[in-house]
Amino acid sequence: MSDLTDKETGNAPPAAGPENTRILLLMAVFGLAGGVITGFLISAGFGVGLVFGTAIAFLNYFWLRKSLKKAFDFGNSEGRPSFAGSGYFTRYLVIGGLVALVYISGLLPIAAVLLGASGFAFALVTEGLLRLAGAVFVKGQKSI
Predict the structure, then answer these.
(1) Contact 113/56 with Cβ under 8 angstroms?
(2) Cα separation of 91 and 22, whole Å?
(3) Do residues 71 and 83 make contact, with C-beta atoms less than 8 angstroms apart?
(4) Any idea where the domains of the chain sit in the sequence?
């Protein structure tokens, strides 16, 4: 059973829509391609830092998705959303701790890690531009 599957009912959350899937795919492509390219052009450490930052972005995305599912889950016995604020806050502590560990240790360039961690934003902007271009240049496309 997946981590996102409801343990009581066995129901999985709704599958990610095509936009989410494409955003995650863009994020992976940007992170891996950027890591390889910057690994050759700048340094191997910078490339690894970019890939590590992208992994942090994925961790953040899936952890946030799971936290929000719990927050808006009205199916518990009390009829109220079961929201563990500590789990939501823990996400920030863990991700901040990982970034702080990289910064303090100096193992990877912090700029590369932060660029990789912001990969979701780059992918989201790219998705928006693709949808805008599709709406403008493709006839028969539904409006945004």
Answers:
(1) yes
(2) 24
(3) yes
(4) 22-73
